[in-house]
Amino acid sequence: MRKLPSILVSFVFSLVATPQTLSAYQVVAVTNGGTISGVVKLSAPAPQVAPIMTTKNQDYCGKSIQNPLYEVGKDAGVANVEVFIKKIDQGKANPNGTITLLNEHCMFHPRVQGASTGEQIKIASADPILHNTHPQVAATNTTLYNIALPYQGFSVTKPLPATPELIRVKCDAHEWMRAWIWVFDHPYYATTDAEGHFSIADVPAGTYELVAWHEVMGQKEAPVTVAPGKPVTVDFTFTPKK
Questions:
Q1: Is residue 167 part of a domain?
Q2: For residue 188, what are the domain limits?
Q3: Whole-angstrom Cα distance, residue 78 to residue 1?
Q4: pLDDT (0 to 100) of residue 188
């Protein structure tokens, strides 16, 4: 496996945003909320990233896998960017459901996703080989749980942390596998799609700080003012890191 330079790894963690708020989030009726939408783009072509060279189960995984660090669509839009309101005291209720992290063809899917405190995560495998899913708090390396997935179709459902955290997920059996889960105490977040688009709905009127985070390029922040019942556009442009 060809590893990222240590300086790049350090850069990721030096720019990790903290989604925690100073006061507890309060659920209120939002009857005339606005919508924040936009697109995240690159200012230059993405660097050439070497494919991941596998070290185990090559009969199933193959000898190499395309590296997903930069997934860029048309018009330079970037996928797998988490966009969220940095601090919001009140708004609509958090979702009360279950997100999914799938081990599929020796990679995690999705690569990046958001969730709310109080939700659960279903960890599943679509592969006929042993996987091991190991979520850790990114800031401290604290293990949340360590789940063995011994066969295709096996799944385990676990609670997500009760406090906001950035979670880094790895597979101990296949060291190249990585995923990221942002856990917030509010529901105002979105992950960019294949073309770099995002949308956050039912936002109470007010002025906020919007954050866009990418696992390699770090984060950017932008102020946004939401008017009652109105859409507002916020775009982000990142400079690729080599």
A1: yes
A2: 6-238
A3: 24
A4: 98
pLDDT value of residue 23: 59
Amino acid sitting at position 172: D
CB 86 within 8 A of CB 17: yes
Amino acid (one-letter) located at 11: F
Question: Residue type for 54, please?
Answer: T
Tens of pLDDT, residue by residue over 55-79, are 999 999 999 999 999 999 989 999 9
Checking if the pLDDT of 209 tops 50, the result is yes
Contacts of 108 by beta carbon, 8 Å cutoff, 6+ apart = 101, 102, 133, 169, 171, 177, 178, 179
Residue 49 domain-assigned?
A: yes
Instruction: State the Cα–Cα distance between residues 25 and 190, nearest whole angstrom.
Output: 18
List the structure tokens of 201: 């709905």
Count of the separate structural domains present in the chain = 1
Q: Does the structure show a pLDDT above 60 at 7?
A: no
**To which residue do tokens 């990114």 refer?**
138
DSSP category for residue 240: P
CATH number of the domain that 138 lies in?
2.60.40.420
Q: What percent of the chain has pLDDT over 70?
A: 90
Two tokens at 238?
């990142």
Residue pair 70/80 in contact (Cβ under 8 Å)? The answer is no
Q: Tens digits of per-residue pLDDT, 16-33? A: 444 443 458 999 999 999
User: Distance (Å, rounded) from C-alpha 61 to C-alpha 126?
Assistant: 12
